[in-house]
Amino acid sequence: MTKRQNIAEDLSRIADALERLSPKPSQIPAFSYKNGEAKGYLWEGDTKSFTPIKKINYIDLNLLIGIDDQKQKLLNNTKAFAKRLPANNALLWGARGMGKSSLIKSIHNEISKENLEHPLILIEILREDITTLNECLRILKNQDAQFILFCDDLSFEPNDASYKSLKAMLEGGISGRPSNVIFYATSNQRHLLARDQSEYNQKDYIHNNDLSNEKISLSDRFGLWLGFYNCDKAHYDEIIKTYAKDLEIKLDEDELIKRAHLWTIERGSRSGRVARQFIEHLLGELGAK
User: Fold this and answer.
1) CA-to-CA distance for 142 and 35, rounded, in angstroms?
2) Residue 251 pLDDT
3) What is the CATH number of domain 33-228?
4) Distance (Å, rounded) from C-alpha 42 to C-alpha 157?
5) pTM here?
6) Strand 40-44's sheet: what is its strand order?
7) Close Cβ partners of 265 (under 8 Å, ≥ 6 residues apart)
8) Mean pLDDT, rounded, for 178-205
């Protein structure tokens, strides 16, 4: 065997080894839950793939109490989108633990049970994967399904330029978002871009005004804004009683509310999330007796 043939064989073995080591192209899901596929997925930005979520963690829509206006607006918007009618991207902002992300998941669950012409798929994208948004959209736009792209607890630091990927997708880019994709985000703050006071020059009104406009322009690109506010005592009590009735908790109502209030004192806050945590604690305690 000649030296040239030896080199050729060595190169062939190296090429085969590299091919085995290289990651295989990710498979695009069928996105058709009528055949048993998942209704929800997690977008993996590093591998450009979708991980199926077989069981989405949702609360029954009827158990989300005291947010009737927000519930109806998002429900109507999502129903229109599911039917391929005009609909808005939505920003759910406000107090912690008041049902923002729960509402999105519950509405998806409710509508996806209907006899839809096109599957309604919920896809979660993590905050740190926003920079891969364009690649995700490139895949989704060619699918015969409707997609709710959902990002929980979304916000950007003053020096974080990754928000521009989202900004272009929401409205400003040449292609815009695909017609079969809608973007729902939750945030504790109304304006997703935090303000850095060091950027502002007290003597330069025009510069300051430009900076302010840039900071609020991202939030402005959401057509639907839904505010969630702190939970008062009456609202909290109603949530507790609704959960207790639904789960058939056999406890005197006065005792139930008294214990629920003690729970909030220990936690130092009152919200729908705190109410749910108290109910889970109570169920465990009653079941252990």
Assistant:
1) 19
2) 92
3) 3.40.50.300
4) 24
5) 0.82
6) 49-53, 40-44, 120-125, 146-151, 181-187, 90-94, 224-228
7) none
8) 70
